[in-house]
Amino acid sequence: MSTGKVYLVGAGPGKPDLITVRGLRILREADVVVYDYLVDERLLDEAREGAELIRCDGLRSRKAAGLSVSIEELNRLVVEQAGQGKKVIRLKNGDPSLFGRLSRELEALVENKIGFEIVPGVTAASAAAAFTGVPLTDRRFSSSVALVTGREDPVKDITLIDWEGISGCSTIVLYMGVGNLRRTVEELRAVGKSPLTPVVVVTRAGGPEQRTVRARLEDLADKTEAGEIAAPAIFIIGETAKLEREFNWSKINKRIWFTGLSRERFFLPGNYFHLPLIKIEPMENYDELDGYIRRIREFAWIVFTSRYGVKYFFRRLNSLEFDSRHIAGRKIAAIGKSTENMLLNFGVRPDLIPELESSRGLIREFKNIDLRGKQIFLPRSDISDKGLEEALKEQGARVWSSFAYRNRMPDNLPDLDLNSFDQVIFTSPSTVRNFIERYKRLPAKVKVRCIGAVTREEARRCRLLN
Ligand code: SAH
Q: In this structure, is residue 466 part of a structural domain?
């Protein structure tokens, strides 16, 4: 009997934070994450450091039909990993019990006597409904819903879909419908659904690329093709679909792209898409920083310019088996509220926090302090400029710095229809530069907002602002 256990967890669709709290807790503990191709990869940042991440379609065998991963191959992998006693999470798109070949995976676990647990998720139908303001049921128009697949198992030659029965449901939600849409519409027409039945098509529900097309059954196929709707899409067919016109909050609100890393801010007017243009990573080698940390007592000041500087400085400090007492007696300066808060997390209250949250602000405050002959240490990112160091040197200080983390362009930034945004908020010069590198230009109708003067300068230099 194996001791391993597998969690089959619904990740939800479209956004990385639609997973349940329980699912997230399991993800954070897992040794191995085997995830479906539709799972938002940003969610994987939640996996613990060192966890093995395996994307299912990486396993696609040549023999398998179409897009589908060979289920045997997948099962073999999961059974093998769990058999070695590893904590395995099978992260599935949406809800695991809907159109996800759940039972095929469970059979393999039962057969190999591997314990399992299933954690539900938000299914694409719920997400599509929520993100367009279309209720799936409504007291006035609909008291039953059918969830239907537009694509059956390709090896079955007869259809198991009971279109006659389904037509009795007031709302029909079609999954995987894009490829076979004309045929599906014919089936629904043949069993008596009115050609005037309202339909809403939602593609990539929840993400910045969400698109909605409004149609009637009779022109659905044409409109879907003209609207360049590609999978993954959900079709909500039924009277409630007409409410999209009134309640589609993702269309009613201003669409704002927030490019920074700070925590998502809620309860602000507008529809925020939190899609960072930077990514923070540890350095590959910490020999230099470790050297400074070991002799930190030689320094009069430590200057933290970002919360990541704090985070990685303390991470190294802990790896070297010190704790915050090791920096006792050093004066600490911090730029910005979030840097201050991160220091407080480590039990350190900064001595100096410039009112103006920037290097310039800090330089101004240091003007009132005698730095002559003092040694200052600055943990910084691999791309920060030397302006602050130079300014402190001019005041007579001896300044040393070392890379504590790397600031990189995120992988897999999606292709975006930039015209769909009303506003973009840049939070640092690197978000501006990465934007230009990845997306080149911003349509003139999109308003640019910058946090801080340095960011604004960079936006001007890159011609995002006049
Ligand atoms: N188990 C999943 C469904 C997997 S089948 C769930 O419960 O949602 C894959 C289909 O789900 C896609 O073809 C599409 O119809 C739908 N889907 C998944 N993610 C979606 C998204 N973000 N927007 C719209 N449809 C989505």
A: no
pLDDT digit string, tens, across residues 419-449: 999 999 999 999 999 999 999 999 999 999 9
Round to whole Å and give the CA distance between 304 and 292. 14
The finding on whether 124 has its CB within 6 A of some atom of ligand 1 is yes
Relative to the CA of 121, which ligand 1 atom is closest? 7
Residues 6+ apart with CB under 8 A from 378: 302, 303, 305, 388, 389, 399, 400, 401, 402
Q: Is the peptide bond before 232 cis (omega within 30 degrees of 0)?
A: yes
Report the C-alpha gap between 302 and 350 in whole angstroms.
10
Q: Is the CB of 131 under 6 A from ligand 1?
A: no
Mutate to test the pocket of ligand 1, among 37, 39, 92, 99 (most ligand atoms within 8 A of CB): 99
- In the chain, how many domains are there? 4
Q: How would DSSP label each residue in 120-165?
A: ----HHHHHHHTTT--S-BTTTBS-EEEEESS--TT--S----HHH
Q: Does 217 lie in the same domain as 172?
A: yes
Which CATH number fits the domain that encloses residue 233? 3.30.950.10
At 112, list the tokens.
Answer: 């190999």
Quick check: CB of 175 below 6 Å from ligand 1?
A: yes
Would you mind telling me the total number of residues written for the chain in this entry? 466
| Judgement on whether residues 284 and 401 belong to the same structural domain of the protein | yes
What's the pLDDT tens digit per position in 364-419?
999 999 999 999 999 999 998 888 999 999 999 999 999 999 999 998 898 899 99
Are 244 and 172 members of one domain? yes
- The boundaries of the domain holding residue 340 are 280-408
